[in-house]
């Protein structure tokens, strides 16, 4: 399903989107932008922004539920473990196989799109996460909105 070309695209996107700074106000602004983008999506989404290990923004559009919350937890753990997007974790696992025990733990980690790392000047600071769409659509909506926000700051 996945290939090296996709992996390179994900790596390049992660390397490109590096914030000069990112604080609670940025988290609120990015979270709100994701929520607004989600209102136009074909299905409702939930949104979470994590900064320095704290959930600093979280929102659920009508029609989301506990399942979305649980998926965001799993995506958050994946991004925090890898410091990469959750889709990249899925691609690497498929292409290279399981290298560590946690990669077999689908109860606590998500190997799908919907989680993206927040880097400030090369340092991992947190994650932007959405849940509610098919996972590649989660990835597209998330990364498109994060990139638009990054370009604007």
Describe this structure as you would to a colleague.
The chain has five helices and four strands, in the order ααββααββα. A hairpin with a 2-residue loop joins strand 1 (46-51) and strand 2. It has a four-stranded antiparallel sheet with strand order 2-1-4-3. The chain is 49% helix and 18% strand. Helix 1 (4-16) packs antiparallel against helix 4 and helix 2 crosses helix 5. The longest helix is centred in the C-terminal third of the chain and has 18 residues, at 135-152. The protein is globular, with a radius of gyration of 14 Å. The model has no long low-confidence stretch (mean pLDDT 97). The chain is an alpha+beta fold and 153 residues long. It has helices at 4-16, 24-39, 66-82, 86-96, 135-152; strands spanning 46-51, 54-60, 115-120, 123-131.
What does the overall shape look like? Answer: globular
Strand percentage lies at 15-25%
End-to-end gap: 35 Å
Mean pLDDT: 97
Radius of gyration: 14 Å
Strand order of the largest sheet: 2-1-4-3
How many DSSP H or I helices?
5
What is the SS-derived class? alpha+beta
What helical percentage do the residues reach? Answer: 40-55%
């Amino acid at each position: 399903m996945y290939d090296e070309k996709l992996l390179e695209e994900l790596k390049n996107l992660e390397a490109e989107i590096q914030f000069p700074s990112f604080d609670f106000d940025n988290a609120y602004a990015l979270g709100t932008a994701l929520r607004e983008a989600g209102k136009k999506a074909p299905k409702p989404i939930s949104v979470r922004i994590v900064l320095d290990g704290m959930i600093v923004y979280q929102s659920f559009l009508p029609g989301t539920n506990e399942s979305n919350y649980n998926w965001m937890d799993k995506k958050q753990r994946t991004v925090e473990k890898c410091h990469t997007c959750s889709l990249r974790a899925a691609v690497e696992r498929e292409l290279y196989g399981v290298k560590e025990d946690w990669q077999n733990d689908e109860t606590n980690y998500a190997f799908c799109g919907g989680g993206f790392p927040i880097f400030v000047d090369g340092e991992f600071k947190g994650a932007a996460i959405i849940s509610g769409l098919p996972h590649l659509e989660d990835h597209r909506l998330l990364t498109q909105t994060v990139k638009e926000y990054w370009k604007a700051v």
